[in-house]
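Input (structure):
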């Protein structure tokens, strides 16, 4: 039996009565399961009657376990009875335990917010256009030469910028050595910025076998608290010098690094791939801007619990991916100098945006009655069958109900996205500002409509999180992730995983 009312915070306050008979049954079940835990003088372990256990340990010895066993059934029945859509964990307050052992309690939960859609069709947003320049092609060609370059030992000159050197160093602060400040035969590329500011520059001009002391100052924002802002002296010795020799950009080089016989053919292929990349970038930027506009037009009072749950998802995913590399979250936090609270706060803005986008997409789904079509389902099944190298019909027979539901949700999501794209055509193309192009250098393709729903997802984690005391400080927020070379995951799969997860949870 239950009653329900809605408060002004879009929360359901449900009053539930757990009848005495149900509670008694739960107590009896708990007693049977846990009897071996209790030792009563005069009885073999696990053989004492329930009444003796309650007398010896207290009348409420079974209450918590019994309540946890009986509560879910009554809570779920109440949610179904009142047709509620909770989005938070229930906050339970026991109001009364009556003489017949029935329990009266109130449960407060956040409800799924109502989304009021604004304009989501016929939106005109200009689409950027990125052209491929000769400079872009030359840059890619130079990168290929760098990858194909080889290190050659140098003995007749001192260290210069760009050299790869091996050195010994021993650092001290106020005359005392510190952990992580000593190394033997450490490899360092001069000009890479791998070590703290001022260190690499002072190695330029040194010769093999030369020793000297260099003076540096640790930055105020350094990741090691005990070294922040401290002056340090490093005794260094150059063991070897190597320079990178690059191959000539000619037909032979093209044959070595590509499937083409001439340099011109290779450069034409580079231009083609850059254009494809630019087109994807432009399309992704357009789709992102379109979705931002649709969400801007929509209204939804999103509870903090949904945002916190999304942050939890980000962190669990991040921790799982780290575990694949044998790393722990504690290692990451130590390396970045962040706390869990700071990490959660860093993700909060993205999490809020993600939740709203999810809710808006689901609202569009309902408004337009978008569902999975059989043709789409069959194509998705065929795709999975091909992935597992099985016949489609054979694979279809092996699919479990929950797997089929996942496939249906995947197709539904595809259809929602396709609907949005079909009903919103870009305005006339425009050339992007130079600044905007520069900002995209680290992520030239940009993020797709799919990936924007889970920006923290990454498929590459750092292989070694051991702090190097000479490494430069990490700046807050996303720069920390970028410095650790974290990159976006497969955009389509990422979107699917998250959106389907949310659909199923909600």
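Output (sequence):
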């Amino acid at each position: 039996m239950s009653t329900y009312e809605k408060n002004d915070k879009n929360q359901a306050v449900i009053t539930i009565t757990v009848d005495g008979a149900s509670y008694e049954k739960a107590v009896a079940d708990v007693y049977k399961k846990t009897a071996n835990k209790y030792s009563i003088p005069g009885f073999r372990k696990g053989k004492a009657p329930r009444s003796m256990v309650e007398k010896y340990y207290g009348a409420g010895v079974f209450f918590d376990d019994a309540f946890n066993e009986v509560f879910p059934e009554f809570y779920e029945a109440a949610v179904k009875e009142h047709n509620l859509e909770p989005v938070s964990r229930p906050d339970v307050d026991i109001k009364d335990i009556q003489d017949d052992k029935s329990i009266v309690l109130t449960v407060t939960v956040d409800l799924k917010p109502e989304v009021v859609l604004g304009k989501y069709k016929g939106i005109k947003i200009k689409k950027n256009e990125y052209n491929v320049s000769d400079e872009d092609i030359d840059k890619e060609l130079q990168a290929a030469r760098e990858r194909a370059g080889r290190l050659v030992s140098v003995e007749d000159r001192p260290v210069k910028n760009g050299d790869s050197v091996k050195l010994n160093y021993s650092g001290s602060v106020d005359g005392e050595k510190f952990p992580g400040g000593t190394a033997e035969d450490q490899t360092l590329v001069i000009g890479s910025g791998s070590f703290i500011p001022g260190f690499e520059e002072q190695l330029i001009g040194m010769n093999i076998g030369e020793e000297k002391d260099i003076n540096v100052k640790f930055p105020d924002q350094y990741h090691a608290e005990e070294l922040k802002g401290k002056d340090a002296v490093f005794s260094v010795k150059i063991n070897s010098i190597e320079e990178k020799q690059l191959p000539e950009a000619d037909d032979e080089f093209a044959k070595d690094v590509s499937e083409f016989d001439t340099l011109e053919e290779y450069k034409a292929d580079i231009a083609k791939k850059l254009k494809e990349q630019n087109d994807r970038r432009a399309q992704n930027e357009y789709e992102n801007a379109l979705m931002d506009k649709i969400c801007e037009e929509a209204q939804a009072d999103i509870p903090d619990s949904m945002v916190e749950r999304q942050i939890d998802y980000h962190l669990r995913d991040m921790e799982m991916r780290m575990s694949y590399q044998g790393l722990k979250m504690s290692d990451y936090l130590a390396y970045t100098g962040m706390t869990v609270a700071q990490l959660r706060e860093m993700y909060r803005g993205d999490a809020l945006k993600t939740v709203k986008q999810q809710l808006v997409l689901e609202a569009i789904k309902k408004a337009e009655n978008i569902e999975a079509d059989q043709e789409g389902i069959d194509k998705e099944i065929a795709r999975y069958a091909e992935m597992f190298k099985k016949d489609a019909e054979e694979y279809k027979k092996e699919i479990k109900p929950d797997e089929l539901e996942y496939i249906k949700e995947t197709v539904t999501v595809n259809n929602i996205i396709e609907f949005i794209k079909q009903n919103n055509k870009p305005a006339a193309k425009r050339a992007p500002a130079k600044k905007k192009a520069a900002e995209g250098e680290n992520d030239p393709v940009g993020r797709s409509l799919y990936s924007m729903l889970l920006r923290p997802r990454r498929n590459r984690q750092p292989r070694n999180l051991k702090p190097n005391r000479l490494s430069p400080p990490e700046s807050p927020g996303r720069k920390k992730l970028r410095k650790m070379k974290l990159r976006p995951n497969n955009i389509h799969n990422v979107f699917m995983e998250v959106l389907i997860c949310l659909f199923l949870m909600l």
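Notes: DSSP finds 15 helices and eleven strands in the chain. The chain has three domains: 2-110, 150-245, 263-505.
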